[in-house]
C-alpha cells in the first residue's frame, strides 16, 4: 500500500528552527509537495521537490532524498504565525497526490 | 495568479435538504478539479476527481449518488450534497491544478464549512 508518515504534532519556540520530517512509500514518485494549513482554512502551497537536494525559499527550505523516501521541511526564525498544520504530499506514478495526515506545529513565545 | 474561489464559505442546512458548493478557477482553466473533505483534526480526504465534460471519478467509499459533481465548464465545478445528514457536516475543499505551471501544484479554494442540523 501507499503510505506517508509525518509526526502528529511538534512544538517549537518563537525565533528558533524546526524540522518536520516526512517519509513515504508510494507506487512511483513524481514529486513531493509541502502545504501549510492554518486552522479552519484551506491549504496553501509551500514547496515542491522532484530532484534530490535542498530547495530554499526565504525562511522555509525543503529537502528530498528519493533513495531514502524521505523529505523534511525546515522552518527558520519561527514566528507565531507559523503555527499551523504542515502537510506532506507525494505524487505517485499515476500522478495522483497521496497526502500525509499533517503535522500540527505549535509555536510558543 | 492561479486563484481558486469557493462558495459559499459556510452553510447551515436542515437534515434532508441539498446543498450546492461551487468551485471556480478565476484566472486559469482547469480541466480537472478535486474535491476533498476534512473532518476536525484530520487530514484531507480526496472524495472525487471532477473532469470537465465527463463524469467524475469517485474514491472508494464515496457515494456518487449522494455527492453529485458537475464540471460543466473549464472554470467551474460544483459539488451537491444531497439529502444531507448531520454526519455530512464537514469542511469541504476544492482544488485545481494549473497545468501551465511546471510544478503542477494544486491551488485550493477557501473551503466550505457545512453544518447539517
Describe the structure.
The complex is a heterodimer of chains A (109) and B (117). In chain A, a hairpin with a 5-residue loop joins strand 9 and strand 10. With 109 residues, chain A is an all-beta fold. The model of chain A has no long low-confidence stretch (mean pLDDT 94). In chain A, strands 2, 4, 5, 9, 10 and 11 form a six-stranded mixed beta sheet that branches. A five-stranded antiparallel beta sheet of chain A has the order 1-3-8-7-6, with no helix packed on it. Chain A has strands at residues 3-5, 9-13, 18-25, 32-37, 44-49, 53-57, 60-65, 70-75, 84-91, 97-99, 103-108. Chain B is mainly β. Chain B is 0% helix and 51% strand. Chain B is globular, with a radius of gyration of 14 Å. The model of chain B has no long low-confidence stretch (mean pLDDT 90). Chain A binds chain B through residues 31, 33, 40-45, 48, 50, 87, 91, 95, 97, 99-102, and chain B through 6, 42-44, 46, 91, 93, 95, 103-111, 113.
